[in-house]
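Hey team,

Filing this mostly as a record. A colleague (T.K.) asked me to run one chain through the structure pipeline before their review meeting, and I want the input and output archived in the tracker in case anyone asks later how it was produced. No errors, nothing strange. Just documentation.

Input sequence:
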Amino acid sequence: MFFKRTPQIMPQPDIDVRTTPDGWEPGITSIALLNSDQLLVVDWDNRTVKLVDMVQHKVLYRLSVSGIPYGICTLPDSRAAVTLPEQKNILILNCSNTLTIMNTIRVSGECKDICYCNEQLVVRYSDPTEKIEILQMNGGVVKRKSLESSSFIYQNSLSVITESKVASIIVCDYNNRRILRLDENLHKQQVYPLPNGVAPGGVLAVGENQLLVSGYYGKLWQLDSTMSRWTLLSREGFGYGGTMAFCHIRHVLYWAGNEVKRYELS
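Output structure:
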């Protein structure tokens, strides 16, 4: 088990990710840990990516982008990848102290969620068809898999878990109330129906074959993917369709919708 026992979830003070130039309240679609002290936040409404210091509770840097950003994942060497669905682009950012655009990758559709896996990008698309692609860092397509139309419609529906250098791609299937586990060739390995047929709102791999899954009505579960065992961690507090990040060093879970909430897991 990733946790030695069912963890206690203790709310901590929220993190304010608003900045002076913002025209709107933050509309957060994705977050990712850069390191144990810094969080990257995608603010859809203000068309920005923000570097946030979680110790000082303040925005360190704010990068305006040319389109509406959606998904984000961290890459080696203090970099990150950000999707711009309407532009059909992925931005590669340098996140050392500031945020700067290093490269732009052109893709084949409206790219939404994104993850990094074994020197490649895993991308979920919503248009023209629902699909997942594995891409080289230059944008070349390695693998592609079509998905049922409109089944994977919420942010935070994609994650990657790696054990002994073997990676699995985890996907929320909203319409069918289940979590899918795919191998690196995008072949289906396992299916995990949610308890009581609840729709999944987001998934996050946290290591040792453990997943955190948010669901309707604010519930949060832990899924042991080796035993297909579900543990209810919280009955409320996790809004539907939010995005999550987990800090192993601090044992802190970050959840974001219109704000970044912080929970200590002990």
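Quick notes for T.K.: The mean pLDDT is 87. The chain has one domain: 9-265.
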